[in-house]
Design brief:
It is built from 6 helices and 7 strands, in the order αααββββαβββαα. By secondary structure, the protein is of the alpha+beta class.
Length: 209
Amino acid sequence: MSRIYSDAARELQDAFDTRRLADRLEATIVRTAATDEDRAFIESRDFFFLATVDPDGWPTCSYKGGAPGLVRLIDAGTLAFPCYDGNGMYLSMGNASATGKLAMLFIDFESPKRLRLSGRASIDLRDPLATEWHEAQFVVRVAIEKLWPNCPRYIHQHRRVESSKFVPTTGSETPIPAWKTFEFVRDVLPARDVPAVQAAIARGAEDEP
């Protein structure tokens, strides 16, 4: 019995005569633990795409960015990544906490290369790993269920222009995003943001976006 293919996927494989190919790929490249090559690739990435699903089955996909080492392998079967300050909605993190299911997509747009991963998430607001990432609010740990490299042929090649100045960096103050100075949200911001927002308003909210 397949570990990754649904009945609907099987129907499409049969319709397009790819079941044998799909079985070979599952048997050859799908694994349940990260290799040294997987670790090197994942830990070199400064962003990834995160998919989660809510208790009603609705999925959401988000972009997560930071510095290289944003995601770290704790061991061959476990990885962790931080939750930084965002818009306060916690849609992805709420889903991860509620259902424990998530998927991650790592891409190198310059090489190109990509890796897909699915796992079970757990969140502990007191996780001691949070201190490993500057300004992390908390950490998500993921028990790897399966991961595999994915064909990169449709990845458009891009070059890095500039890293975001909003990535938390030890030894420097992270600027406040301009949207937090907008009047419609000023009165509902977390107390921790108020001093920085007031300072940004005073200087004309120069920081973007």
